[in-house]
Amino acid sequence: MPLVVLSYGPYEAHGAVKYRTQRLHGLLRGLTQKQYEVEIIPSIHLNRLDVKMLENIIFQCDIRNLLFNIDYESDPVCMRIIAVIEEAEARFFADRNVPRFIRKGYPPDYLKSLSAKEILEHVQKSSIISLLYEHSKHIQPKQNSEHLVGSNAKIETSHGSYKRLQQNRMWSPSLCDIIPKQSSTGIDETLVNRKFAESVSYDIMSDIINDVVASGSELLISEDFLYSNG
After folding, report:
1. What's a Pfam family in this record (predicted)?
2. What is the 3-state secondary structure (H, E, C) of 114-150?
């Protein structure tokens, strides 16, 4: 069963503002009986109860609307919350919605080299994309770091040339940041973090990925790219 997170705030009663989990008694019992995993998190929001599933708020109300120390069968608000949770579970875990809300199981530090074909299989057409690609080039020891960055800071694509502007270390057009790294092996490892601030055309993105791969650069993909942003 999915994890349900209850984020509850303090409320005033009998002249004191305190956190009182007794208001959650019926809800906790009902969710436990239905075999949901429940996590309770105190929040700073006065009088508020947020119910979350898969990091989405699915229900929000005044915690004082729940009855004090009453079983969920006798609490209409509690029954309503449980019904919303069951409906949200059905929506989130529907086959057509799973790619939008469920991560694909990669660890947070996942970074893997993939072919363009494999990458495009994970692309969501409406996603905000974060790409990492690394271009390594053998260099002469006498060359300085600034010259090395300039020699590698250009990629030709069918949609134009992306070249670093010397004065502000940004790409033209301004879609990329460049971070020069000097390795002990004499290889200039220029790591480029390309961020599309807005959703881009799927066809244009596909062409750019294929052009980068064809240029001989090693294409790396970050975890955010493999997750759909919905």
Report:
1. UPF0728
2. CCHHHHHHHCCCCCCCEEEEEEEEECCCCCCHHHHHH
Structural domains in the chain, sorted by start? 3-100 (3.40.30), 105-226 (no CATH)
Query: Checking phi first, is residue 55 left (phi over 0); if not, alpha (psi -120 to 50) or beta?
Result: left
**Sign (positive/negative) of CA torsion 155, 161, 166, 171?**
negative
Q: What is the mean pLDDT of residues 169-182?
A: 34
What are the two backbone dihedrals, phi and then psi, of residue 14, each rounded to the nearest 5 degrees? 55, 40
The total number of residues shown for the chain amounts to 230
| Structure token pair of residue 173 | 């057009």
- Answer whether 50's CB lies under 8 Å from 15's CB: no
Strands (E), 124-225: 130-138, 154-157, 160-165, 170-172, 176-182, 187-195, 218-222
Task: Express each pLDDT in 133-162 by its tens digit.
Answer: 333 333 333 333 333 333 334 444 444 444
CA atoms of 215 and 164, how far apart (whole Å): 17
Of the pLDDT bands very low, low, confident and very high (cuts 50, 70, 90), residue 199 is very low
The number of beta carbons lying within 10 Å of the beta carbon of residue 221 is 22
* 219 pLDDT more than 50: no
Let me know: does 55 contact 102? Beta carbons within 8 Å: no
Residue found under tokens 């790619």: 99
Task: Give me 176's structure tokens.
Answer: 């990329």
- Contact at 8 Å (CB) between 92 and 54? yes
- The DSSP bridge partners found for residue 39 are 5
